[in-house]
Specification:
It contains nine helices and ten strands. With 287 residues, the chain is an alpha/beta fold. The protein has a ten-stranded mixed beta sheet, sandwiched between helices. Strand 9 (252-256), helix 9 and strand 10 (283-286) form a beta-alpha-beta unit. The relative contact order is 0.15. Mean pLDDT is 86; it is low at 259-265.
Length: 287
Amino acid sequence: MSIAEILVVVDGAPGGEAAVDAALHLGRKFHARVELLHVEMDVDSAMPVVGEGISGAAVEQMMQSLQAEAEARQAEAKRLFQVHVVAKKMPVVEPDAEPVAGKFAVSYRQVAGRQAAAVMRRARLADFTVLGGPGREGGMPATLDAVLFESGRPLLMVPAAPAGDIGATVAVAWDRSREAVCAVQAALPILRRAKSVIVMTAREADDDVEPSELCRYLAAHGITARTWAFSPKSGSMGEALLREAAKADADLLVMGGYGHSRLRELVLGGATRYILAKATMPVFMMH
């Protein structure tokens, strides 16, 4: 199992610069192909439903505003490609060129349509998709939601200014659930390259999780890991997990997508919104 295809979304939103940097960094590290994907805004579908009493001039003004936003986002996406790829003389290939296994290369693809659907379609044939963050207290944007819950592939959420290497010290949120297993399995190539892997579990009275089991599994894959147990205490589970990962000097957090108690509240619950909004390290997630 290796990393060969990395997709990074360039939509002109805040955090795009850091997301492109992270994708290119990991592309070089794993000798993978990186695709920068920009989805042109469908102005017609982006128009809100207008009721009676809205003048034609007002509708026209809204259309012009959306068109200007679409052009600005497209310009920013092309700027990112020029500044981070072309100007740095990275190997550039056409988006539909035949891939060469084990060779780092970068492509830029621009498509039209609804962003969430277009990104999900490309994400299903990528080893993981990179999106910028955080700042998502208000809920999950449609694209992030589609990648995380519908693509069947991992998501790497990158904060505005990640520091240093990504994946040198990796914290794994572990509760023995199916989702956690999927996240670990998808992250194996990253874990193999890490200098330090830390298996983090929350201490709870009804817990039968034994983190050493995961350490033994990882050892079978040539990965040395150590355990780190913590008590959530006050605050949310997301807050506790980020706090413990920071204490461990982790530069990447690997976690599954969960639906209910313990660490399982991390996706769909308030803890996920907290992590997506507050994480100061990249987060590798899979549902």
